[in-house]
Amino acid sequence: MPDLARLLHRVAARLRNGSPGKAVTVGCPDGLTAAVPHDRLERAVTNLVHNAQQHGQGPVEVTARPYEKSVRIEVRDHGPGFPPDFLPHAFDRFTQADRSRATTGTGLGLAITAAIARAAGGEYGAYNHPDGGAVVWITLPALPPPPRSA
């Protein structure tokens, strides 16, 4: 299973390079791992960050932390947030908050992320941050830290 900090930094660097001017910061303690195959975890995180870059404003903040017996990954942008009536549908397939401003997306990124979280036994959600911007999150089962050598 992948080291989460390393994976988050790699995804952030790739998406920063693909979207100049779209700052992506990462906050994640070393040694945190999720019980999810590497390719699926990378796809889920990529979808969350890309969505924030496309529909929000910078900077995009990616954080991960232990959460009960899980790992919680949050991605926050500093844009206008989700329309309140869209929040319950943010992870539905083929949905976009504002069709008139739709980019080339299909409305599948968050739905794919939700499917990855569900398949791993995790959860997902979205809310508008009180200081502005949208926050999307997933929780995934955590792997226990490796035993310390004596």
From TrEMBL:
<dbReference type="InterPro" id="IPR036890">
    <property type="entry name" value="HATPase_C_sf"/>
</dbReference>
<keyword id="KW-0547">Nucleotide-binding</keyword>
<dbReference type="InterPro" id="IPR004358">
    <property type="entry name" value="Sig_transdc_His_kin-like_C"/>
</dbReference>
<keyword id="KW-0808">Transferase</keyword>
<dbReference type="InterPro" id="IPR050351">
    <property type="entry name" value="BphY/WalK/GraS-like"/>
</dbReference>
<dbReference type="Pfam" id="PF02518">
    <property type="entry name" value="HATPase_c"/>
</dbReference>
<dbReference type="InterPro" id="IPR003594">
    <property type="entry name" value="HATPase_dom"/>
</dbReference>
<protein>
    <recommendedName>
        <fullName>Sensor-like histidine kinase SenX3</fullName>
        <ecNumber>2.7.13.3</ecNumber>
    </recommendedName>
</protein>
<keyword id="KW-0418">Kinase</keyword>
<keyword id="KW-0067">ATP-binding</keyword>
<feature type="domain" description="Histidine kinase/HSP90-like ATPase">
    <location>
        <begin position="36"/>
        <end position="144"/>
    </location>
</feature>
<keyword id="KW-0902">Two-component regulatory system</keyword>
<dbReference type="GO" id="GO:0016301">
    <property type="term" value="F:kinase activity"/>
</dbReference>
